[in-house]
Amino acid sequence: MSARRALPAAGIGIALLVLLAWLPQYYGSTQTALFARALAFAVAALGLNLLTGYNGQVSIGHGAFFGFGAYTTAILMKDHDWAFLATLPVVAVGGLAVGAAVGFPALRVKGLYLALVTLGLAALFPDLVTRFVRGTGGTTLVQIPKVTSPSWATRFAPADDQWRYYLVLAVAVVMLLVAWNLVRGRFGRALIAVREHEAAAATVGIDLARVKVSAFAISAAFAAVAGSLLTLTTGLANADRVGTFQLSIDFLVIIVIGGIGTVVGPVVGAWLFVFLEDWTKQVFPDTPLLSPAIFGIALILFVYVLPDGIVGGARRLLARLRRPAAPTPPTAPGTRPAVRT
Question: Cα separations (Å) of 104 from 28, 109, 218?
Fold first, then answer.
């Protein structure tokens, strides 16, 4: 990115960060928890976008990676008295390992078959949790100790929900910067090359297996960290087959809404997704089946209007505005220019 374009982009980023930091100062705990949920979903969608948008591998199993991070943080905090931030490195490394373990078998399949393999992972995860996790009342529900605002932070985060939101925001910003650097470096170019043409990528010396497995591992680490962030705000970790599968679909919807193959797209898509979902539930509180139907119709209309997502649509609009007007063709000597009616 040139310096002329980098400075406005940096200014917009700083302004948005200031806005996100101000939100919990104005809104109550319910809205603040919703903001934190959007940030957590943005982190998970960022990871899936690295795998699907940049590398071309489709996954419907990221709800399992998300749940892995949630349970890892919950168990370490509840049973071993770990601080929340101390659990994040364990979650990230564990997510990398689990993602790599799934990525190796995925080398033999692609497209729809890979989607089915990851779908099996989403279906298997709740059974594994039921087998190995014992939470509240003998169920798989694990409730973590409440994270409170420290004394030194009470000046800008006097409420506990504000402090938890700022923790989520800080981690989300770090993950966004990591994703940004990954896609703009050599690894990002390798991801795109493998997505566009595997044979050509192999010809220029790109290790296809390493790139694909690395994409799976990094994507799973992002989803696992996102699961930890949501656990911090909700105070519990829980898993069921429908919920895990629904999360996987939600992450796919988010990157489609925001813009596949962009860094900012998943962040924008996550906020729109979370608030549109919350709005439909508030408008139709007494009809639980009608709310998802309206939500689905709204998403279909949105994708129809902006097939390349919000970021892609914004880019097309800016390109059209910047396009210079077509020059008027010169007229031959002695002739009068045509008059448009």
Answer: 45, 10, 13
Q: CATH code at 135?
A: 1.10.3470
The Cα 14–Cα 310 span in angstroms is: 20
> Mapping DSSP to helix (H, G, I), strand (E, B) and coil, where does residue 51 land?
helix
| Digit-coded pLDDT (tens) for 56-110 | 888 888 999 999 999 999 999 998 899 999 999 999 999 999 999 988 877 787 7
Q: What are phi and psi of 142, to 5 degrees?
A: -115, 120
Give 83's contacts (C-beta < 8 A, 6+ positions apart). 77
81 sits in the region (left: phi over 0; alpha: psi -120 to 50; else beta) called: left
Amino acid at 165: Y
In the block, residue with structure tokens 């990221």: 62
Residues 341 and 338: their CA atoms lie apart, in Å, by 10
Query: Looking at the 3D structure of the chain, how many domains does it have?
Result: 1
Amino acid code (one letter) for 306: L
Domain of 93, in residue numbers: 10-321
CB 47, CB 226: distance < 8 Å? yes
The 10 Å Cβ neighbour count of residue 177 is 12
Query: Can you name the residues that pair with 236 across neighbouring β-strands?
Result: 143
Continuous H helices in 185-288 = 186-196, 198-203, 208-234, 241-258, 264-283
What whole-number distance in Å separates Cα of residue 327 and Cα of residue 325?
6
Determine, yes or no, domain membership for 341: no
Tracing tokens 């209309």 back to the chain, one arrives at 301
Q: Which of 228, 244, 208, 212 is nearest to 102 (CA)?
A: 212
* pLDDT tens readout for residues 238-256: 887 778 888 888 898 899 8
Residue reference for tokens 């101000």 = 22
